[in-house]
Amino acid sequence: MTIQSMPVVGLEGVVAAETLLSHVDGEKGELVIAGARVADLAFAESFEAVTARLWSLASGTAHDAADLARDLGRARLDAHARMPAIFAVTDGMPIVDGFRAAAAAIHQHGTTRPEVALLGAMPVIAAGLVRRANGLDLVRPDPGLGQAADLLRMLRGEAATDSETAALNAYLITVSDHGMNASTFAGRVVASTGADLFMAVTAAYCALSGPLHGGAPEPVLNMLDDIGSVDRIESWIDDALKRGERLMGFGHRIYRVRDPRADVLKAAVEKLDRAGRDLGLAARVETYARKALATHKPDRKLDTNVEFYTAILLDALQIPRQAFTPVFAAARTAGWIGHAMEQQRKGRLLRPASVYIGDMPA
Ligand code: COA
């Protein structure tokens, strides 16, 4: 067996697709989205403009950012009108599960293009589920706003400040796409069978919801709350590692250095005009966690990942913890859709192999 054909359990390093959408360099700590470094996009463009770039590359047809922003506004209104029917399906479910059921229920409606219907629906569903869970009335979308401003407005019931909108916009861009991560792969597998975008995005979301992928920010905040003060940092982290627990917000399958998204999101927190949680404590937890992980796993470079500052940023934006994964999904849907389009345009049915290690019949 050649090195190329040796089985790799976990598919590490296996190439599943060619993509024009994003590139992750784990050694250099670099993320390129649609041809630009993430740090150069996050505070310079709108989420709609980055989505238009991704979808243009994926589909081979130009998507205009202003047209997309207008169409997404209309799609948010459409989704809002459908929320009563969606609640009939999601009532009684935790928000993370309700979001999955709602995403699956948002099938194509009227003449709206499926990619626009889906991406426009995401913030409406996320905000709707959170408000419903808290006994609050839904806030009608404002189609004149961008996705970031309207998501914050629909969640909180009041307009966000410019700095809050810019911070959430930077977050949406930063996590909009990230190479062949587990959820994108799941979505591409489904798209490769010829299933539609709604199916592909629902599958991708299911993969995202796990704590090893997109479900880590809430446990990050729980960790920071539990640590509580600077004098408890070392003992808390040492004890957790001794118990064999993983520190949430650290480690990555691809990055061997600090996740470049962590820096962008840290900058987004620092630009906020309203203070969130104790950034000083978080920074000291980060410093000690990196040191402790280096001793704990000297052969494995474990550094800060995107989820650490995601948690701090979303918390500072007063987004409730149960909404973190849906808000992540509202951003990553741009990438999932792009990958599904690209897979359907250029790819083959994704059908890897397994190595049978069971008994053979006599
Ligand atoms: N804390 C403590 N130990 C960790 C760790 C962490 N955050 N991340 C990895 N390790 C340890 C593993 O326990 C493993 O040890 P072992 O060989 O004794 O079993 C070793 O480092 C290698 O880990 P591995 O599971 O091979 O890494 P991976 O590439 O499969 O996992 C993650 C990557 C992200 C799943 C992993 O780092 C993790 O669970 N991080 C915490 C969750 C998180 O922040 N997720 C968000 C990712 S963006």
Q: Unreliable stretches, pLDDT < 50, 5 or more residues?
A: none
The CATH class designation of the largest domain is Mainly Alpha
Bound molecules: coenzyme A
Supply the CATH architecture of the largest domain. Orthogonal Bundle
* Share of residues in strands: under 5%
Determine the mean pLDDT: 92
- The CATH superfamily name of the largest domain is Citrate Synthase, domain 1
| Portion of residues within helices | 55-70%
Radius of gyration: 20 Å
Query: Major beta sheet, specifics?
Result: 3 strands, antiparallel
Number of domains: 2
How many strands? 3
Q: If strands are numbered along the chain, what order do they take across the biggest sheet?
A: 1-2-3
Structural class comes to mainly alpha
Structural commentary:
This protein is mainly alpha-helical. It has two domains: 22-210 and 321-346, Citrate Synthase, domain 1 (Orthogonal Bundle); 217-316, Cytochrome P450-Terp, domain 2 (Cytochrome p450-Terp, domain 2, Orthogonal Bundle), CATH 1.10.230. The protein contains 16 helices and three strands. It has helices at residues 38-42, 47-59, 65-81, 83-90, 95-105, 114-133, 147-156, 162-174, 182-192, 197-208, 217-227, 233-242, 260-271, 279-296, 306-316, 324-346; strands spanning 22-25, 30-33, 36-37. A three-stranded antiparallel sheet has the order 1-2-3. A hairpin with a 4-residue loop joins strand 1 and strand 2. Helix 2 packs parallel to helix 16 (324-346) and helix 11 crosses helix 15. 48% of the residues are buried. The mean pLDDT is 92. The structure holds coenzyme A. Residues 212, 216, 246-253, 293, 297, 300, 302, 305-307 line the site of coenzyme A. Coenzyme A is lined by residues 212, 216, 246-253, 293, 297, 300, 302, 305-307.
